[in-house]
Amino acid sequence: YFFLVAAASAEKPNSASFMGSPSKTRRMKPLGIQLYECARGSPISFRSCQALVLILTFLSYASYHATRKTTSIVKSVLDPKTENLGMLHWPSHLYLQDLRDAQGNMTALYSGWAPFNADDGTALLGEIDLAFLGVYAIGMFFAGHLGDRVDLRILLTIGMIGTGFFTAAFGAGNWLNIHNFYYFLGVQMMAGLFQSSGWPSVVAVVGNWFGKSKRGLIMGIWNAHTSVGNISGSLIAAAMLKFGWSWSFAVPGVMIAVVGLAVFLFLPVGPEMIGIEEDIHEKDAEKDDMSAPLLEERSASKEKAVGFIQAWRIPGVAPFALCLFFCKLVAYTFLYWLPFYISHTAIGGVYLSDTAAGVLSTLFDVGGVVGGILAGHISDRLDARALTAASFTFSAIPALFFYRIYGSFSLYSNIALMFVTGMLVNGPYALITTAVSADLGTHSSLNGNSRALATVTAIIDGTGSIGAAVGPLLTGYISAKSWSGVFTMLMASAFVAGLLLSRLVMAEISAKMESRRPDAAASDLPVSSMEQS
């Protein structure tokens, strides 16, 4: 569903201007594709470009999330509760064996890092999260606007290399023996700024290459990049802890920079940019049924971009945007604080190491993949987005309660409840950011305006990202007193998220009931036939 969001997020240049100037087209082709065509002796095919776009954008956004996940893994090292540390030898290779030196003192890895190992350490870590997510949320509102006016390949490359630099710079605080809080705060703010370029760029590029047909299998795989990035980021950061927490930042930082260079060398932004003629594009589209436009093509001169206030007035935008605020509040609290919570909670009477906690926390993202696919499938079958999203958010409330109460009973109960919680928390989050955004961006009130989708998507995701900043910040303060208070906040947020959709849910239920009435079916044959299909 992700590429549906992108169909109007970038204005395609006039293909005639490129077809008439082969030298200009060559200059705009990525260098890697030019070298490939020279070595092969023939132009790259349309299908090859589609595959290349899917692979590169998948790796790109997965690497963004991998760097984003690192902080949550390292938190329990920066701010440990040394008196609670214990060992659980399952599986033994995931744990650090030497907690104390020969004199019986805690090793440097578990002594924390100033200023985060002070009494207000968790609050400072919460402020670090706020710095990153706050700038990220603000940047989201402008990144799409900027992407419409610059080369998306260049924008994405700069964003990835900048993200890699500032991710590594956070870890460099260990090597440079930096203990100034404002250094880490500033680094995270800059990282958030560069990260905000990722989402609108990858979505716009994929939207240039793919249309509406055959999106199920393709986007079902591509949609997993967020969770794949979270899982890989957790595993890499956890594995690097034994070498020092700085390496947990340095390695993902180098990785995203390398992927960024690959994007610069090989990513084709659109068919016109690499010289694929429009008629060939259209023939391939008819043959493969993969490039049908999301919206009707209209004269650019007749279309006006939808204004910010006008987009808010589209039916459904405000409730879904506010719902996503609370959905992301819950989801990002787990993203940034779950490994910390696991390592500081006795599971079956013992405490897991930071490495093991980071590995175990990946099961939340595995559940999120299942939840996102399940929510999308159910909403398609029922044709009821709000009802599906609200059902998931309300179901997440008992899941959060049971995870807090019974998740510490045993390792197996923790695994099972964490998986279910991830499924119910991330399900509506994934649904709203993909299918719902596409639905609202192509609402009937827009009369097919193709320049509304990007604005609607920015409003919904930007509002949600503000919630993503608030949740981890509040957790930093509340967790210092009680983790039960944190879970109460999360359950209340899930309840409010579902409540915000109540009017839309009632409207969907009423529409379903009306559609089942015999007189309604007889009086509205086109609707009935569409529903049957």
TrEMBL record:
Membrane topology: Multi-pass membrane protein
Organism: Oryza sativa subsp. japonica (Rice)
UniProt keyword terms in alphabetical order: Membrane, Sugar transport, Transmembrane, Transmembrane helix, Transport
Gene Ontology cellular-component annotations: membrane
Family of the protein in this entry: Belongs to the major facilitator superfamily. Organophosphate:Pi antiporter (OPA) (TC 2.A.1.4) family.
Residues annotated as domain Major facilitator superfamily (MFS) profile: 55-510
Transmembrane segments: 123-142, 154-176, 182-210, 222-241, 247-267, 317-338, 350-374, 386-405, 411-432, 452-474, 486-506
Signal peptide: none
Keyword Ribonucleoprotein appears in the UniProt entry: no
Major place of residence: membrane
The keyword Protein biosynthesis belongs to this UniProt entry's keyword annotation: no
Gene Ontology BP terms: phosphate ion homeostasis
InterPro entries: MFS (IPR011701), MFS_dom (IPR020846), MFS_trans_sf (IPR036259), Sugar_P_transporter (IPR000849)
Protein name as it appears in the record: Os04g0555300 protein
Record-level Gene Ontology MF annotations: transmembrane transporter activity
Protein's cellular compartments: Membrane
